[in-house]
Amino acid sequence: MSLTVQNLCKTYPTRGGELAVLRGVNLTLHVGEALAILGPSGSGKSTLLYLLGTLERPTSGTYRLGQQEPFTLTDAALAHFRNRAIGFVFQDHHLLPQCSVLENVLIPTLAGAAENLEARARELLDRVGLAHRLDHRPAELSGGERQRVAVARALIHKPMLLLADEPTGNLDRKTAQSIGQLLLEMHQQEKNILIAVTHSADLAKTLPRQVEMLDGSLADWTGTPDPRITERAP
Ligand SMILES: Nc1ncnc2c1ncn2[C@@H]1O[C@H](COP(=O)(O)OP(=O)(O)O)[C@@H](O)[C@H]1O
Ligand SMILES: [Mg+2]
């Protein structure tokens, strides 16, 4: 099982003309592999993650995930495929404030057939260290705990692909480290494909492979220091 992207392009129409954000992205990853994507702000990292997450369709190019070519599907079939095959962790946790921790993890299951995944949700919450917080509301959790819930929710359907967009961007350094570690552990245990977009060289280095978004395509990461870290240096 693998992910294959060939010559993926995304152009947005803007008032100033066409804006070519992705200009031919090529990528192959197999189940069990993890990738960090770095790159300057505005370089198209989130755009690529949205395409890989099938939340948007490309202007051109091909995408295969496992047996499926998602962009050949109708919108309804694509939504069903996405719900099952892809898990998302965003910078903001996107938890529903009125729902408990346990209910939040079960939200992706509400759309499908009446398959009861409560035991799976409880097990995931135990594995992310929140077995004692099942009835809390998101407002009653720390930022790191909220991200742990988001990780559990992303994994509820055992997706083939786990996507994270700046998953530690809102966290202090120590919490960021623990969430980075958790993502990697859960990826290894669940044997999915993990792709994490990050500004953090620390997080990127915990993953086995790093690339950089430059001029609309992916290049090997040169390991140039994170400009935000050098800014903070004395
Ligand atoms: N829906 C859209 N319409 C027009 N331009 C967009 C849209 N989404 C993103 N962009 C532009 O595409 C570029 C890349 O954005 P993004 O993928 O969010 O970058 P990154 O995540 O690397 O910071 C930016 O210049 C942004 O303004
Ligand atoms: Mg972004």
What does this structure look like?
This protein is an alpha/beta fold and 234 residues long. It has a single domain, classed as P-loop containing nucleotide triphosphate hydrolases (Rossmann fold, 3-Layer(aba) Sandwich), CATH 3.40.50.300. It is built from eight helices and nine strands. The protein has helices spanning 45-52, 75-85, 101-106, 118-127, 143-154, 173-190, 201-206, 227-232, and strands at 2-14, 17-30, 34-38, 60-65, 86-89, 161-165, 193-197, 209-214, 217-220. The strands form two sheets. The chain has a six-stranded mixed sheet, sandwiched between helices. A three-stranded antiparallel sheet has the order 2-1-4, with helices on one face. α4 packs across α5 (143-154) and α5 packs parallel to α6. Residues 229-234 have low confidence and may be disordered. Magnesium ion binds next to α1.
Order of helices and strands: EEEHEHEHHHEHEHEEH
What is bound: which ligands? adenosine-5'-diphosphate, magnesium ion
Cα radius of gyration in angstroms:
18 Å
Lateral arrangement of strands in the main beta sheet: 5-6-7-3-8-9
As for the number of domains, it is: 1
